[in-house]
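Good day; I would like, with your permission, to put a structural problem before you. A protein sequence and the structure tokens that stand for its backbone fold form the material at issue. The record follows directly beneath this note:
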Amino acid sequence: MDLNAESLRYILGLKLRQMRHEQGLGLKELSKATGMSMSYLSEIEKGRKYPKPDKILHLSQALGVSFEHLVSPKVEENLVPVRELFSSPFLQEFPFHLFGLGPESLVSLVTEVPSKAGALLRTFFEIGRTYDVRVEHFLFAALRSYQQLHQNYFEHIESAAEAFLSGRGWLDRRTLDRDDLAAILEGEHGYEVDFEILPEYPELADLRSAWVDGEPPRVLVNPRLRRSQQAFLLGRELGYLELGLKERSTTSSPIRVQSFDQVIHDFEAAYFSGALLLRKGLLLADLERVFTLPRFEPSALTDLLDVYDVTPETFFYRLSQLLPHARGFRRMFFVRFSYEAQSERYRLSKLLNMTRLPVPLGVEPGEHYCRLWPGPRLLAEEPGAEAGDVRVSASRSTFLADGEEYLIFTFTRPLSLAKGVHSSVSLGFAVDDVRGKVAFLDDPTLTHRTVGITCERCPLQDCSARAAPPLIHDGDERQRRREAALTELERRVHSDRTEP
């Protein structure tokens, strides 16, 4: 796509609409003056058409401006933010099609009142600069919205994974070894699989894998990972191939994000790998047996990790794909925290939120996430010592934000590639959605807690886990009291004026 031409098309439409409005011309009058149809002029203004030079000349003559002025990308000062939007990577890369839209839909909104839109966009750009919001942030946000739109379940990938397993007679296998997947990559796709070279580059030692195009293509897997983690990465590599995904990241965690196709293809390849390692039919049957237990038994979940030989994160993320679709657990969130004991700080490193809860977004840098959340609490109490040391809990949490209660499962473990860093992954389901479907929901041994989002926003006065004063909450309360006092003052003055 010629991005410059696309931008010029939108900018011409913007300028044409503005000039027509300034001169009080309707589309009908401009149509008569130029000999162009009203529908064609409307298409130009919406950025869908770029007229040929002779038609631009007719437009310039009808509007009383020069040809050069009309085709120039220069705009008035108040429209500069709109021009920046049209030429921005955001407009070029944002996946409007996933939501049934096109870039022209946004253009139509902007060009309705372009000067006011310019002021609004200037505000957004300023916010973006202040909070360092980059294009990739929008792209990942679009991906999360796309997942929510489909309840994080994608039948075409499920079918592709099942066909792959069926073709090899693996549908009934609960475990796939990395060597089985490496053999397919090397034997059927001409890959070279390397488990040695990556740590030789200190700057890349924390990468799980890297892919190098060429003849033959090579996938480099970090040898410090567990075999099950290596199997996931090789399964993801097969996902790119089996699903025909061309645009992709070359590293396990993308160092550069260049397009939405890259973002969604990475997601789809990882989804495919999860479907290989955790077969839908087998896993749902195993979970049914867990959910019918009258008491929560931690070993019931840890045993499944061993049965399928996967990490807690892979296991829970696979459940986030299957349970909303198969069991109706629609209000669900998946959240991952990392914790370094020396700093005593918890970092939110992954989130998929299919609830109305602010879990836990909209917080300022430096805020302290609620220590009563199952993830941070379990990390603080017993983070585990070695790579294979996995802890699990189940609890019920009521959120101060809206009073809703969630059944939350949490795993913690030390990370393989980050010494001294531990990770927790939590999967939460609305109690109302799981009632009658999870037998141990009312198990009296489950911990019940009331939780907030961050300490700075929490109204609880006697919280034993508080790590910071409730500065934001107190500030909001002061503002509320001031507004209430002002309202009372206005009522009193009004009452005095009306008394005889």
